[in-house]
């Protein structure tokens, strides 16, 4: 006597799950995108579930969808039972082959194009080492989570490791076997133990199958490149995705710059669908569910988003202040002293403040780069172009080009498309933190420079 479902029974159970999800979503008038925003699950994952393509949905995924649908106990139990019926097939049992990424804490805003590119490159094996770089709080971890979830949906095991001291912006999957396997890989790449001591567990568990190893918040200076080369030889299908403050700068590395969200200048018209505005509105609903933004409110929100350069963590921090002030007051503070709003109204136990993180990034830059940033800020213009860097530094064109690239990679400047030309903006959070980063090194150049 067997207790598992046949393949046909498993398919039917998953199809029933999809029908339930779609029925609840339509009943309360949500689109797939709106449900994705509420549940923090990707639109693609919801679409696959509703079509019955996701053969083994995770328990966390179903719980988040049930939360997004605001299901009562009976409807939630029906969803969970449909999942259990689908999991009783021969593939039941958690192994490294189906190791899953953690569940995100926040919805994905925009980034679909970036996630699609990363997913395609890592799934096809075109790239085997990708490093996501950008300023702290810009959304590197959230993009890595989305990419990992898509690859997991495509059948690739995902081993996720959050580096010690990094802010864990997700809900880890409590599986001791997978956690031990991931720790072995991370420790090996960090150089722990003998140089010739390759841990047997990764190769034994994964063999020549494909797998994604994510090291979130890692310091590339702690990683040993020859060990990665050996690990990839032992596990030919292994891909490595890093989120870091700076590149590893090793052969074969694919550098992927994560910029802030698009926040167009509202002077050209308010765009409520702009990614930064959508993020702010989502945070607004959390702190002020009673507030329904009118036309004037949306104009204030669009200006705050533009002034804070669409930086996700800065926007979340600013939105948290709406518990003690209104939108018009918030806009006035952002205009006069944005530094006061760059940390959320919290108890401070969520890790270093945004200002502290930005200050550390600035302190790690060469003194000449900081002097250039100070000169650009002193000039008073919202944007700068290559010619401004040539004028302020007096350096040759190749040097100036490399300096701008360095600033982009560190995340302290972002490309600007408002004027339809190749221009850049020094982020507001950087302008706020710059005077405290290294006072002696940031004296503004003279007007004649």
From TrEMBL:
Species of the source: Streptomyces zhihengii
Q: Which SUPFAM superfamilies match?
A: lambda repressor-like DNA-binding domains, P-loop containing nucleoside triphosphate hydrolases
Q: Which InterPro entries match?
A: Cro/C1-type_HTH, Lambda_DNA-bd_dom_sf, P-loop_NTPase
**Which domain of life does the UniProt lineage start with?**
Bacteria
Q: Where is the HTH cro/C1-type domain?
A: 21-69
User: What is one Pfam family matched by this protein?
Assistant: HTH_31
Coiled-coil segments, which residues?
Answer: none
Q: What name does the UniProt record give this protein?
A: XRE family transcriptional regulator
